[in-house]
Every structure is written in structure tokens, then in C-alpha cells.
Amino acid sequence: MKFLRDLLDKQRPLFEKGGKLEGLFYAFEAGETFLFSPKHTTAAKGAQVKDAIDLKRMMITVVVAMIPCLLFGIYNTGHQHMLATGETAGIWDNFGDKLTTGLILVLPIVIVAYAAGGLVEGIFAVIRKHPINEGFLVTGMLIPLVVPASTPLWQVAMATVFAVVIAKEVFGGTGMNVLNVAMTARAFLYFAYPAQISGDQVWTYLGDKAPVDGFSGATALSVVYDAGVQGVSAVDALNKHNSVLGDGLFGFYNMFIGWIPGSIGETSTLMILIGAAILIATGVGSWKIIVAGFAGTYIMGLVMNLLAVNEYMALPSHYHLVMGGVAFGIVFMATDPVSAAQTETGKWVYGILIGFLTVIIRVTNPAYPEGIMLAVLFMNVFAPLIDYYVIKANKTRRLQRATV
Q1: Residue, of 59 and 73, whose pLDDT is higher
Q2: Are residues 231 and 185 in the same domain?
Q3: What stretches of 86-152 show up as alpha helix (H) in DSSP?
Q4: Domain that holds residue 333
Q5: What is the structure's pLDDT at 339?
Q6: Residue 236 forms part of a structural domain
């Protein structure tokens, strides 16, 4: 590493003011700070507010929290592929082949997302002449985890560029965005290329192989929606859904562990909860938003049970917690410290409303049986308004106490 450090120090004058490559200074600095800790220090004199965590450490912590989801998603991608093509029946059979297949499919998506987003970040840094910060370390991992493994790489690149430019850079860059960047990328793909991001044929990669007889690429959400249309019990439809493994593919336990079709990082609630524990233990993620989000989902599920006029509304509320992207969205998207509510009371309101809206959209919108994406983006927009009224209420109470 000393050789690399010496090389960078030797080249640095070329990029500093007066150097031949002065215009590319911030691109050079981005690569340098990615490899080494920056040399910037606080002033030698005067009071300084210091903390053990900075932006880079915060972003890396979130990436570490997502690693369990990524690793499980890689393996499950290969697992679902082999189930669909009839190459294996057991969960742990052909472990190496499944892992290899998953890596071949998932790793390029991660690389393309980071490359496309990093290029845009670099261009804007050079144009604006400001340092590249580490915000995209998280976004570059989130985007691959919220798309199916069968998503074309060019679509991943296009969605990433769109999200970074429209949801982040036009607002001023990291720390200024109103909408969650990764969720914006997911929304772009859903509305621009619905055939490649929704439906029964996109969640499981088949390659050039034909699926076995009886294969269905449906997700749990689509199975429940179909049950509501057909007037069949949603729980029975889930427990009896046949997709190569036989009855019980979408049983509650399977959905909690994650052995089901879905987006790369969203299927395993267990892995997501491990990530949540890391975020909460390190203080990076708000436990209030996470608890409120799950509570809101569960409570609205109970309300729908009371108002049930179809089988989707009658689905037991705890099923909503392990279906689709609810857990992933609440833990990794809703807790985004930039686009979420900032006040402590506002975090409770923000999280609960995300849970409420998720279930409402799921059971009332026949065109979109999922709801977490729209719920998070909608509440991102209203988060400042929530904080405004919370602060206003706090001021009112203090003024009332002062006049007593």
C-alpha cells in the first residue's frame, strides 16, 4: 500500500491548482479518498465537535448491513434457477452450482450499478468542482438488491443514471435529495419497462433452458392477488401453491427465510432483520422508523381484516410483513437519513404511515399488488411537512408553558 500511496502523492501536483490536469482534481481526489483516509484534519486550536463516525463510515456500515441480503440473494437466485429448470430438488443440493449461477447473474448487476452511478457522480463533481462524497456507496448496492436477477444490464444502467441525476444531483447532491435514490430507480424501471420488472416471468432466471412441468414464476403477492380475484382463501392459495417444490412454497416459514422468487435482496426477512440489527446497534438506522413501519403494516393488515370484502383483505396481517419488499423497504429505504423525517416524533408518524400506505396500496390497487415502493416515495415527499408540524406543535406547547 505504501507504493500506491507514494504513487498518488507523486501524481497529485498534476491535479492541484496550476497543474496540467487541474480540471480533474476532484475526480483524482475521489479515487484517493476511496483508497485512503483523507488528510483533512480539524483546526489545531479552538473547540471542535468530533465524532467517531463520518459520512464514509456511515455509508460503509449500511453496506455491511446489506451483505447478508446480498449473499442470500446470490444463492437464492441460483436456487430458484435450478428449481425452475429441474436440476435439483433440495435447498442445499448442488451448493456450488447454485452459488456460481447466482454470482454470474448478480455480480454484473452490482458492477453496472456502481459503474453507471459512479460515472455520473464523477461528472457532476468535475462540473461543480466539489468533492465526491460516499453517498453512492449505499445506493449502488441498494439498486441491484431491489431488482430481479433477470433485469437486463442496460436497464440497470439507465435506471441508475436516471435516479442519480433526477433524484439526487438536480437537488444538489448527497444530503440534498428529497426522494430515496434507489427507490426512484426501482420506480423508473417499473413504469418505463413494466414487462421486465413485473409479472410471473421475470423473477426466476431460466436462461436457455425450458422450465419443468408445473413451474410457476409467480411471487407470493401475485398468488394472493389471484386468490382474491378467484374468491379462494389467500392462505390456502399460498400454502398450496405448486412451483416444483410442491405444496407450501409460499408458506409463512419459507417466506420468512426467503426460499421464494423475488427481487435479489428482498426475499429473506431473516437476512433483512440481521441487517436491521446492525443498523440499530451502530446507531446508523433509526429504530423508531423501523418499529413504526412494521407496526403500521401490521395494524393496517388488522384493519383490512375487519373490513374484508375480498380474500386479499382477509389475509392475516402478519403475512404482509414477510411478503414482497416490505421488510427491505422499511429497514433500508425508509430509514434513509436524508429523505426520512428528522424529528423524533416525526419518525414515528413517518414510519407508521409508510406501513399504512403499503397495505392500502396492496389490497386496493389491482394493477400493483405491491405497495412499499410507492409508500416510501410518497412519504419522502411529505417528510418535511411532518417535521414542520411536529416542530410547530413543540413551539406552541412551549409558548403555552411560558405564558402560564
Answers
A1: 73
A2: no
A3: 95-128, 136-145
A4: 220-260+286-392
A5: 92
A6: yes
What's the rounded mean pLDDT across residues 318-332? Answer: 93
Does one domain contain both 238 and 384?
yes
Q: Are residues 65 and 166 in the same domain?
A: yes
Residues 110/116/119/124 CA torsion (nearest 10 deg): -120
The answer to whether residues 184 and 227 belong to one domain is: no
Q: Where among 143, 162, 197 does a domain terminate?
A: 197
Do 180 and 140 share a structural domain? yes
Give yes or no for residue 245 having a pLDDT over 50: no
pLDDT tens, residue by residue, 12-50: 777 777 777 776 776 677 666 666 666 655 555 555 555
Q: State the first-to-last Cα distance of the chain, in angstroms, to the nearest integer.
A: 66
Number of domains present in the structure of the chain: 2
Model pTM above 0.90 = no
CA dist 352 and 347 (Å) reads 8
Cα separation of 356 and 101, whole Å? 37
89 plus 193 within the same structural domain: yes
- Rounded alpha-carbon distances, angstroms, from residue 79 to 92, 239, 256, 290: 9, 20, 16, 29
Which of 307, 392, 397, 303 shows the shortest CA–CA distance to 352?
303
CB 160 within 8 A of CB 186: no
Single out the residue of 233, 339, 336, 322 nearest to residue 290, CA to CA: 336
H or E segment at 237? helix 234-240
